[in-house]
Amino acid sequence: MKKLLFALLILFFISITGYVIIRYQFGPTYNGEIDMKGLSNETEVYFDNFGIPHIYAQTAEDAYMTMGYVHAQDRLFQMEMMRRVGTGTLAELLGEDVLDIDKFFRTLGIPKHASWSTEEWNKEGDSPWKSATEAYIKGVNHFIQNGKLPLEYTLLGTKPREFTINDVHGIVGYMSFTFAMAMKTDPLITKMARQLDPDYLKVLSIHTLPEHHVIPNHYPARNPSNGEIDLSPNLHDLLEKIPVPLLEGSNSWVISPSRTASGEVLFLNDTHIGFAQPSVWFEAHIEYPGFSYYGNHLAGLPFGLVGHTRNHSIGLTMFENDDQDFFEETLNPNNPDETVYGDVYKPLNKRIESIPVKGKDPVEFEISESIHGPIMNGVIPEIGRLTQNPVASWWVYTLEPTKALEATWKMARAENIQEVENAVRLIHAPGLNVMYGDKSGNIAWWATAKLPIRPEQVNSKIFIDGSNPYNEPLGWLPFEENPMSINPPSGFVASANNQPDTLSNGMFFPGYYYPGDRWNRIAKTVISRNDWTQESIKQLQLEAINENHPINAKSMLAVIDANDFNGFEPAKNALEKWDGNHDLDALAPTIYYKWLYHTLHGMMADELGEADFENFIKTFLYIRSVPNLIRTDNSPWWDNTNTPEKESKREIVSKALEKSLSELKDQFGSNSADWQWKKAVVLVHPHPLGAKKPLDKIFNVKAPEVTANEESVNKLPFTLNPSGIYNVNSGPAMRIIIDFANVEAAESVLPTGQSGNLFSDYYSDQAEMFAHGKYRPMLMNESFIKNQSKNKLSFRIP
After folding, report:
1. Domain limits of the chain?
2. Residue 491 pLDDT more than 70?
3. Which of 64, 88, 224, 448 is least crowded, fewest Cβ atoms below 10 Å from its Cβ?
C-alpha cells in the first residue's frame, strides 16, 4: 500500500510539473519586458483582473504595434481561422475535409475582393489609418516571429505564416458574408414559388407583414448647401462546418437624457453572434496623446468596430437589408460559354484557381462568372438541385473595394455627430445599423449600406431572369434617404434586426428582417419610465420573454380535445398560464418547442421534403412565419399531401401533441411537473479543434444553464429539432451598458473570456458570469488601472 501511495504521489507531481512546463511553453506572457523593433517610444500594457489590455503609448503607430502583439498572443489561432476562411485557404491548414468551404468562398468572390481591396490600398497615399494598420500588422508578426505560439499549431503540426493587409481584407470580407441571408433563403423561396400553389406562400412571411414592428425613422433637418445635419431642436450544412462563428443579429438601444435618472445618455449594445471559443470580441483600451478609446475588436482587425470614448459611443446591429440577388441565366444554345442578354450574347468569364490542401496536391478549381456575378450552382447544393441553368450571385459587397478600416478609424475619432455620419457613409456593405450616443445628449441610428433601386417587377427573394436587361438595378439611393433616426421626440433609438419604416422617399426597403418581437419589448419598456439607470436597465437586457409564443400556444390549445393532456395536467396548466417567460424552472417552453416542431413538421415536411423542411427552420423565414402558420385555420399547409383525405389543423396539432407528450415522458419522466426548461438546454462554446474527440474536452467551454429562447431581448436561440434537447448556438457576444454621467463606470461581459489561449487564466473566467447575467467594469481611469493591475508588460526599443 505504501509503494502504491508513493507511486501515485510521484505520478501526481510529474503531472503537475508537466502541466507547468507546457503552460510556460504555450501560455501568454502578461508580465515582463519585450524588445520590439519598430517602436519609436516605449509602451506599457496593464492587464486588468479580466485580462483586458490597457495600452499606454506616445504615438498611434506605437499603440497599434503593441495592440497587434497583445491581440496575437491571446487570439492568434482565431486570427488564423478568420483569415483562412476569408482568403479561401482553410484546407491548407485543416485538410481536404474543409475543401468545399474554400471552393464556396472563392466562388462567392471574397478572396478575389480582398485582393482588389489590397491593390487599391497599396495605391492610396499615406493616411493615419493606413500607418496604424500597418503598425498593427507589424505587431502581430513580431509575436509570430518571437512569441510563444499557442498549442493548436503544435497539434496541427504547422506554424503560422506572417500576417498581411490582404488577410485583414479577407477577414472584413468574411465578416460581410456572415450577414448574407439571401443565399440561405432565396433558393428555398424560389423552390416554393415554382412547385407550390400561391396560397401556400400567402401564409408565409416572405416579405414584412403589417403586424410586424418597424423601426421608426426620424430624419434630421439638413443644411441645404452641404447636406450636413442641423442639430437645431427638433447552405446550412456547409456553413455549419466553418470553424469560426457567423454574425447573426443584435440589439442596441440608446436612451436620451429626458428618460434617464442621470440626465445623460444611456447606451446599450449586445451583438448576436454564433457562440464559439474564444469569444468573438477582443476588448482593448488604447491611450496616446489626443486619443482615449475602449474598443471591441474582431480577430485580425486593428480598430474596434464597437467602442467608446469619454465623449461618444458606437454600437452595431445587423441591418438585414437585401443586398444580394440571384440571376438565373439562359445559356446560348449554340455556345455554352455565353449567356443570353436581351438580343445579344455575353461571354462567361472563367478562371482556374489552385487551392492548397494539407498533405495533398493542390486542387484545381474552375470559377465561372456571368455579367451578374459568379455562378453558384456547384457550391450551393440547393441551387444545383433546383435548376440546370447557371445562377449568378449579384452581391453589393463585391462591387467596390472595402473602406471598413477608414470608416472604423474615423468613427472612433469623431468629435461630433456629423463626423460620425461622415464616417458611416463609407460603409457600402454589409448593411449595419450604427448606433450612437454622446456626452452632449445626442442619440442617433443610421442604417448604413448602399441600397439598390430595383425595378418594380423584380421580387428580390426569387431568382431573377438574367436574360432580361430590364431586371437590372436602376441605381442607388442617396445616403440621406437611408433609414435613420436622429434625436427623435420619443427619447430613444433602438434596432433589433427588424424592418425600418418607409424611407423619406416612401420606399419600404426589402430585407431579411426579424418580426420585431425584441424591438417591441425594448420600445414598450423604455417608454414606460423616465428614470432609467445603468442598474435598472439591466433587467431589460437580460429579459427572456417573448409575447408571441403564448399566443401561438393558445392557438394550438384551442383546437385540441380537453382530454388530450390526460395524465399531463401540469404541462397543460403551464401552457395555459404562460406569459412567454423562459425561466430555467419553467415548464411551458419545454412543451411548446417540442409541440411546435412536430406541428410544423406535420404541416410542411410533405410539401418541402425532409431536407428543405430542416433548411426552412434554419432561416429568418421560420421566425417570421410561425405566427401566421400556426394561427391560420384554413391554410393549405395543414393538409398532408401524402394521404387521400384532407387533414385539418386540429388533426395535425393533436397528432403532434400526442407525439410530443410521449417523447417528453420518455425523456424527462411521467410527471410533467418535472419537465423544467433547464433540463432541455445545453450551451457549449465550441473551439475549432473541439469538433474532434477528445479535444472537445480540452478546448470547448461548457457553460451553466441559460434561459434559451427565440426572439427575446436576451436572445439565446437554438435550432428547433425533434430531440427535445436544444443546443444554444448564438447569443449576445457582449453586453455593454454605458451611462455618460460616468463613462468610467461602464460595464460589459463576454460569453467565455478575453483570451483564446488554453493556458491563460482568462480563457473561460467570464462564462459563469455571462450565464448568470453578471457584468464587469470596462476600466478607463488611468490611476485606478495602474494601481490595481497585477500584470504589466513593457515594450522596449531594442
Report:
1. 1-30, 548-581+587-675
2. yes
3. 224
